[in-house]
Design a protein that fits this description.
Number of helices: 3
Organism: Eikenella corrodens
Shape: elongated
Distance between the termini: 71 Å
Keywords: Coiled coil, Signal
Protein name: DUF4124 domain-containing protein
Number of strands: 5
Length: 168
């Protein structure tokens, strides 16, 4: 009996702590303790996962016709139609940000092209080297395959950067 009473008291004290006031202290900073420059935040209760009932708002007189009346059970009831959803245009980045991004992408593209030329040169030189036999040959083949994958990676990076630049 004492255990359940103690457990109930503990649970209730936790609930009261969770329902305590919240204070807003500046930009995006919240606290449970009031401090200098803090104001009590007006936050909705936690745990309401269902949406509130939409309330019909009267439309502007010039923009929409009056609501239609429909007979429901012998009484007149106002029927409101939801307004047509407006397409939301994606906010275009500013031209300054766009031009800065373009410059960065072009610089990365130039760096990747230089790295591709270097990787291709190293691959060509590695292929012309004498091959040898045994362990030396296997090491040479591993180096050639590594250089081939480097060249392929650089080519794919260049294609990705070109695609990104074409989207701008």
């Amino acid at each position: 009996m004492q255990k359940t009473t103690l457990l109930t008291i503990f649970a209730l004290s936790c609930l009261s702590a969770a329902a305590g006031p919240v204070y807003s202290c500046g930009n995006g900073s919240y606290s449970s303790k009031p401090g200098p420059g803090c104001q009590r935040a007006d936050l909705p209760t936690i745990g309401r996962y269902s949406a509130a009932r939409p309330r019909p708002t009267p439309a502007p007189v010039a923009a929409a016709p009056a609501p239609q009346r429909a007979a429901v059970g012998g009484q007149q009831a106002a029927v409101y139609h939801a307004p047509a959803p407006q397409p939301v245009a994606a906010a275009a980045p500013s031209s300054r940000t766009n031009s800065g991004r373009r410059m960065i992408l072009e610089q990365e593209l130039a760096n990747e092209r230089r790295a591709l030329a270097t990787a291709q040169r190293a691959l060509t030189e590695s292929r012309t080297m004498p091959k040898g036999d045994g362990a030396a040959y296997q090491a040479h083949q591993a180096r050639v395959s590594s250089l081939q994958s480097d060249v392929l990676d650089r080519q794919q990076n260049i294609q990705a950067l070109q695609r990104e630049l074409s989207r701008m």
